[in-house]
Amino acid sequence: MDDLPISVMGSNFKLNGVIDDPLPGEEDSDSTETRIGISHVRSGSFHSRSGSTTPRNRQTSPTHSPRLAPSRFGSFDQFSGDVQHASSFSGLKLFGFPLNHSSQKFKIDKRAKKRAGTVWYQRKRIKGILFLILLVGLFFFVNWVMLLRLQEQNDRIQEHDDNTVNPGFSGNVSSSRISVQGKRKISRNKWPKGNYGRLLALAAHALAEGENKPEPKDLWQEPVVASSAWKPCADQRNWEPSVERNIGYIMVTANGGMNQQRVAVCNAVVLARLLNSTLVVPRFMYSSVWKDVSQFSDIYQEDHFINYMTPDIHIVKELPDNLRSLDLEAIGSVVTDADIIKEAMPRFYLKNILPILIKNKVVHFLGFGNRLAFDPLSFELQRLRCRCNFHALRFVPKIQRTGALLLQRLRQKEGYPGPLDKHLVGSFIESTMKERKARSTKASRYLSVHLRFEIDMVAHSLCEFGGGKEEREELEAYRAVHFPALSLLQKTTKLPSPAELRSEGLCPLTPEEAVLMLAALGFKRKTKIFVAGSQIYGGNTRLTALTSLYPNLVTKEKLLSTTELEPFKNFSSQLAALDFIGCTAADAFAMTDSGSQLSSLVSGYRIYYGGGRMPTIRPNKRRLASIFSRNNTIEWRIFEIRVRKAVRQTKHILTRPRGRSVYRYPRCKECMCWTG
């Protein structure tokens, strides 16, 4: 049965060839289908399925009258009456049709009843459709009423949250509203400048509602079974100390901050072994960015470093007197970063540096940074790299003592040391605990976050962060002074636009984006958060989003008194060491820029010594950029799901990818041993 158009509200409808009271002009003159009224069908009116008024028994009649075409103006009632009247006479013909009262009437009645049943079924079907439409309409009406009630409830909750839970917000807080669709009417002074005011309001509402909800199970955990199967073993030595140590001396002056310098030291150790030479204790270059005069012995225990590495290489504190007086630049023994490509292969040093070393007995690497490739490198050289980073470099007692004090105040109720404390603060581990009698039965967890949003990172990224023309001019001026090569490249080469950089995940997360990520992951409002790198671009006003949503946010400047921080004043590298301790020992660590050296070293240290119980949150910035780009329309629940999925994918336990840093990915046979 073909489906035909149905008009519910009109005065006529057509179902399977049946039309009720067609309007003038609706008749299809080419149709071969006989049309009859519905009332006539009920009374047994005649209708030929073949499109002709000729009955089937006409085909066997020897004589008949000319065929009559069907007409809509014919009186079928009169014709039916004539048939009934004439059928009482046996053998009579009407218009050439032989009449048989018993058979003909039975056929007509049977067809009429069949059509009447079809019409009844179609009418019942229409009634069912109308009932279904009514039911759906009722559902949407009830849903609309419930949404209105929920809207009113959200408004009341928001008023309560603004007046009680968030008293630190500035501005007319009670005027804030959060609608079901996510639209907002909010005071301009409530949130800091930026593009995420709507999402921040939704996050505040979600945190207020979620105080009594359990946190996600994997929030403070790693996949323990897979991660705990890796054990530290870089301290195992499988070679004998080198016999020839007098080929020459290698001097290294490392650039950058504390973390870049740490990487340079480890690379220098490997280079000394590769070239079979003696290493002079590395020195640190003064940076106009960091403005720190700290040297190796101000940050690391020099004697421990020398003694621990002695079986591998020979280390001295100073050059011999006969070499100290040489003009190294004049004799061609000074090699700068510009002379070495980034992550140069070992063969480069054997081909280009070894001849200089043999000739002049000394080579000075000036500004030596990330200039040694991770692959290909022999097993023992790679292990030597890990041994230096995870075992040979220990902070000086001054830093360890203050770091232990920092951990004690971070944990508050915690009476037991963390799994990494002994590797970070050494013999001062006891000071991280309160008196034995005051030990708490429940650990006080804290989350550490590295906000790599200092002005150097912001300027070097070439991204924009919502500050408009004023921000662009300020960052351009900073680049011209501190990154002249980048500033020149920006003027002479067509570089990707800030929007393209952001879409590719090449921009550091802003404080607003960082706090939205934490809220979406499920960290409760009461979570204690230690923020490293607190000297962020834009000052304390950019921390408003963090402190508003998470009031238990602290920095080393808040936890330590002015007197306790006095020995570290104007020494940014030593202050960075305190941040390193606070971040590494945390129960969970969240990085906001995967390219940061501090984040890379902290996450690797937590993997190496953490025993599979020190989770690290590594955001996929490219995916987050796609999520944040919809901040004007995306709903909070969808935002949560997408952020959690983007972060969860980075928690997989994988071995170190080829060519990647062993400091960040120590799960490899050179650094750790698989025991699973």
Structural overview:
- This protein is α/β, with parallel strands linked by helices.
- Among the domains are: 166-227 and 410-424 and 440-453 and 508-676, no CATH class; 234-392, Rossmann fold (3-Layer(aba) Sandwich); 456-497, no CATH class.
- Helices cover 43% and strands 9% of the residues.
- Strand 15 (528-532), helix 19 (544-549) and strand 16 form a beta-alpha-beta unit.
- The longest helix has 65 residues, at 101-165.
- The model is unreliable at 1-99 and 153-193 (pLDDT under 50).
What are the main properties of this structure?
676 residues, alpha/beta, six-stranded parallel β-sheet, five-stranded parallel β-sheet, 25 helices, 19 strands, 9% strand, disordered N terminus
E-strand count: 19
The largest pleated sheet is described as: 6 strands, parallel
**Gyration radius over CA:** 42 Å
How would you describe the shape?
Answer: elongated
End-to-end distance:
67 Å
Low-confidence segments, given as residue ranges, are 1-99, 153-193
Characterize the quaternary organization of these chains.
single chain
Structure annotation, total helices: 25
The amount of helix comes to: 40-55%
Beta content: 5-15%
Describe the secondary-structure layout.
Layout: E1 14-15, E2 18-19, H1 38-42, H2 76-86, E3 93-94, E4 97-98, H3 101-165, E5 177-178, E6 184-185, H4 197-209, H5 224-227, E7 230-232, E8 249-254, H6 258-274, E9 278-280, E10 283-284, H7 296-299, H8 302-309, E11 314-316, H9 321-324, E12 334-336, H10 346-360, E13 362-368, H11 379-392, H12 397-411, H13 421-425, E14 446-450, H14 455-461, H15 468-482, H16 484-492, H17 498-503, H18 511-521, E15 528-532, H19 544-549, E16 553-554, H20 556-559, H21 562-565, H22 572-584, E17 588-591, H23 597-610, E18 616-617, H24 621-628, H25 636-648, E19 672-674
Parallel strand pairs: 8-9, 8-10, 8-13, 9-11, 12-13, 14-15, 14-17, 15-16, 17-18
Antiparallel strand pairs: 1-2, 3-4, 5-6, 7-19
